[in-house]
Write a structure and sequence with these properties.
Blueprint (H helix, E strand, L loop, with lengths): L1 H54 L9 H11 L1 E7 L4 E4 L6 H13 L9 E4 L4 E10 L2 E10 L1 H52 L13 H35 L4 E6 L4 E4 L1 H7 L3 H4 L4 H4 L3 H13 L3 E6 L8 E10 L5 E10 L1 H36 L6 H32 L7 E4 L1 H18 L3 E5 L6 E4 H17 L6 E8 L3 E8 L21 H6 L6 H11 L3 E7 L3 E9 L7
Parallel strand pairs: 12-14
Antiparallel strand pairs: 1-2, 1-5, 3-4, 4-5, 6-7, 6-10, 8-9, 9-10, 11-13, 14-15, 15-17, 16-17
C-alpha cells in the first residue's frame, strides 16, 4: 500500500509541478511581453522627442551636437541623424562601431521610411534595438535613428524567473506537505481495508478495520467489516457443523467408508479401522481394492459401482478379524446435478444380535429338551397304566412315584423359567430391608445341612461380626441357597463347603468355596448361560434345571453387586459375591 501512496503522491506532485511550470512560463512571457511593450512605447515617445528637437535644427550640416549629446546621455540612447543622401549628420557614438553603424544604416536604408510613417523598430541584436523616424529639417528630409540597449531587460527577466522559481518552489513544498497529508488521510482507510482483506484471505476472520469516516472509504471499511463478520460466522458455523459431523461419524458405532468415483478412499471412521485392524494413515487416498482385506466387501463395493443401486448384505469375518458378523449397506453417492461422486459403505456389527439369536435358538432347544424328558416319562408310564398295569399294585405304586417325580421336575423347570423372566424384567423391584448377612447365611446353611449330610459333607461358616447391609432378604437367600447347593452337588462325598464373609468399608464379600470337580477356564464365562451344565449327567441326576446361576447373576446385578468365579479342574471352585452396604435405589 505504501507503493500505491507513493505513486499517487508522485502523480499528484508531477501534475502540480507541470501546472506550476506551465503557469510560470506563461507568467514569465506575460511579464516579458508587458515590459517590452512598455519599453517600446517609452522609446517611441523618446524618439518623438528627439525628432522634435532635430526638426528645430537649421540644417543637417549645422546640427547642434551638444544638444543631441545631452539628449543621448539623458535618454541613455544612441542617436544617429542621416540625411537624405544617406550621409551621417550626427552619431552620438562618433562612429566608434563602424561596422555596426554601417549595418544599421544599410538596414534602415533598405526599408524606405517616408513622411507620416510611424516610428519603425529594427532589432539588430538580442540586447540592442533601433527605432527610426522620417524627419524634415529646413526642407531637407532624412531619418533619425535612436538605439536603445535592452541589457536591463535581461536582469528583469532573471529577477522575474527568480521570483517565480522561489514562489513555485515554496508552493511546491507546501503542496508536497499538504499532498502527503491528504493522501495519507485518504489512503489510510484503503490501507487498513487492504490489510484486513489480506488477513481475510489468509483465514484470519477476526480482522477488522476502522470505520471513522462517512465517505466512500468509510463505506468500504464498513462493507469489509460486514464481510469479515459474515465470514467469521460462516466459518464458525461450518466448524461447528464439521465437528458435529466428525463426532457423529467417529462415534456412530457403525463402520463407515467413503470411496470416490476413481476408487480411492476419501473418508473412514475409527469403527471401520477397528473392524479390519487398519490405520488411517494407510487408508486415506488409497485404492479400496488394495486396502480392504475381505473379499466379500470388495465384491459388494464393485457391485454398487456397476449397478449404481443400494445393496444390503451380511458377511462373517474370519477369526483374523475377531469373528464378527457384519451387515453392510452400500449406496451410490449422486449429487444434485446427477453427477456420480462415488459410493459409501456402512458396516453394522450384528455379532451381538447373532449371539442373541443363537441364544434364543439354544434356549428354545434346551427348554424343549428339558420339557420333553419329563413329559415323555409321564406319558409313557400313563399309557402303561392305562394298558392294564392299574391292577398291579406294586407297579402302580412305582409308576405313580416316577410320574410324581417327573411332574415335580417339570414344575421346578417352569418355576425357574418364571423366576428368571421376572428378575430380567425392567420393572423388577427389590424389597429392600436392612439385615445382617451372617444371620442370612446361617439360615441358608441350616436349610442345606440335610443335603450336605446325605453326602457326608460339612458346611463351614467363617466370619466375624458383620455389619448390616441393605438388600432384598429373600432374593439374596435364594442366591446363596443356589450357590451352596451347587457346591454340594459338584463336590466329592465327605468334602467340605466353606462360606467366608469379608467386610470392607462400603461393601461385603461372600465367598462360597468347594473342593469339587472344578471346571476349565474357557467354561467359566458360559456357566451363567441358561441350561449350560459343566457335568450334564450329574446335574440332571441332581434335579437341576440349568437356570440357577442365570438367576443368581441377575439378582446380584440388580443389587449393584459383582459376581465372579475362580476354578481349576479337580481343585474346586470359588464363587465371590460382592454386595454394597447401601443401595442407591429401591429397584
Amino acid at each position: 500500500m505504501s507503493s500505491f501512496r507513493t505513486r499517487l503522491l508522485f502523480a499528484l506532485i508531477s501534475l502540480i509541478v507541470l501546472v506550476l511550470v506551465g503557469l510560470g512560463v506563461l507568467l514569465g512571457e506575460l511579464f516579458k511581453s508587458y515590459y517590452v511593450n512598455a519599453l517600446n512605447s517609452r522609446l517611441e515617445k523618446e524618439v518623438m522627442i528627439v525628432v522634435n528637437e532635430a526638426e528645430q535644427q537649421t540644417s543637417f550640416a549645422n546640427v547642434n551636437s551638444t544638444l543631441f549629446d545631452e539628449l543621448s546621455e539623458l535618454l541613455d540612447t544612441r542617436i544617429i541623424l542621416l540625411s537624405e543622401e544617406g550621409s551621417t549628420a550626427y552619431d552620438s557614438e562618433n562612429n566608434i562601431l563602424v561596422e555596426e553603424h554601417n549595418s544599421i544604416v544599410s538596414v534602415i536604408a533598405e526599408d524606405e521610411i517616408g513622411p507620416g510613417d510611424p516610428v519603425r523598430r529594427f532589432p539588430v541584436t538580442d540586447n540592442i534595438t533601433y527605432y527610426a523616424k522620417h524627419i524634415t529639417i529646413d526642407g531637407e528630409t532624412g531619418v533619425i535613428i535612436v538605439g536603445a540597449s535592452f541589457e536591463e531587460l535581461q536582469d528583469v527577466y532573471r529577477q522575474i524567473w527568480m521570483i517565480l522559481g522561489i514562489t513555485l518552489g515554496v508552493a511546491l513544498l507546501i503542496i508536497i506537505l499538504l499532498g502527503t497529508r491528504i493522501t495519507n488521510q485518504y489512503t489510510k482507510p484503503i490501507e487498513s481495508a487492504t490489510k484486513v482483506a489480506i488477513e481475510l484471505a489468509k483465514g484470519n476472520y477476526r480482522a477488522r478495520t476502522y470505520e471513522d469516516r462517512v465517505d466512500e472509504t468509510g463505506m468500504l471499511s464498513n462493507s469489509i467489516n460486514v464481510l469479515a463478520r459474515n465470514l467469521q460466522e460462516m466459518v464458525t458455523h461450518q466448524a461447528i457443523q464439521q465437528d458435529r459431523l466428525q463426532t457423529l461419524i467417529e462415534n456412530m458405532g457403525s463402520g463407515l467408508i467413503m470411496i470416490d468415483r476413481q476408487g480411492y478412499i476419501v473418508l473412514v471412521n475409527k469403527t471401520f479401522l477397528n473392524f479390519f485392524r487398519l490405520d488411517s494413515n494407510e487408508v486415506i487416498n488409497e485404492r479400496y481394492v488394495d486396502i480392504i482385506p475381505a473379499v466379500k466387501v470388495r465384491e459388494l463395493a464393485e457391485e454398487v459401482f456397476m449397478t449404481e443401486q443400494r445393496i444390503r448384505k451380511q458377511i462373517h469375518l474370519p477369526a483374523d478379524y475377531a469373528k464378527r458378523h457384519l451387515e453392510i449397506y452400500g449406496a451410490p453417492i449422486i449429487s444434485d446435478g446427477s453427477v456420480w461422486q462415488g459410493i459409501v459403505l456402512v458396516f453394522h456389527d450384528i455379532s451381538e444380535l447373532k449371539k442373541l439369536e443363537q441364544m434364543r435358538k439354544d434356549f428354545v432347544a434346551n427348554v424343549s429338551h428339558e420339557v420333553k424328558t419329563p413329559i415323555t416319562s409321564i406319558k409313557g408310564f400313563t399309557e402303561t397304566l392305562l394298558d392294564g398295569a392299574l391292577n398291579d399294585k406294586e407297579a402302580l405304586q412305582s409308576f405313580l412315584s416316577i410320574i410324581l417325580k417327573e411332574s415335580d421336575r417339570l414344575q421346578a423347570l417352569i418355576q425357574d423359567l418364571l423366576e428368571l423372566s421376572k428378575v430380567e424384567q425392567q420393572s423388577f423391584k427389590l424389597a429392600i430391608t436392612q439385615f445382617n448377612i451372617v444371620d442370612l447365611l446361617k439360615e441358608v446353611i441350616a436349610i442345606m445341612k440335610q443335603k450336605a449330610a446325605e453326602k457326608g459333607m460339612v458346611i463351614t461358616l467363617i466370619s466375624n461380626e458383620s455389619t448390616p447391609l441393605e438388600g432384598d432378604y429373600d432374593r439374596l437367600k435364594q442366591v446363596f441357597i443356589n450357590l451352596i447347593s451347587n457346591a454340594i452337588t459338584y463336590s466329592q462325598p465327605e468334602g467340605e463347603v466353606r462360606v467366608v464373609v469379608e467386610d470392607q468399608k462400603k461393601s461385603t464379600t461372600i465367598l462360597v468355596q468347594d473342593d469339587g470337580i472344578g471346571m476349565e477356564e474357557e467354561e467359566i464365562p458360559r456357566i451363567f448361560e441358561r441350561f449350560y451344565r459343566v457335568d450334564k449327567a450329574r446335574s440332571r441326576n441332581s434335579g437341576g434345571t440349568g437356570l440357577g446361576l442365570a438367576i443368581v447373576k441377575h439378582i446380584v446385578e440388580v443389587h449393584a453387586g459383582e459376581l465372579s468365579v475362580k476354578s481349576k479342574p479337580n481343585e474346586g471352585t470359588v464363587f465371590s459375591v460382592n454386595l454394597p452396604v447401601r443401595q442407591k435405589s429401591n429397584g
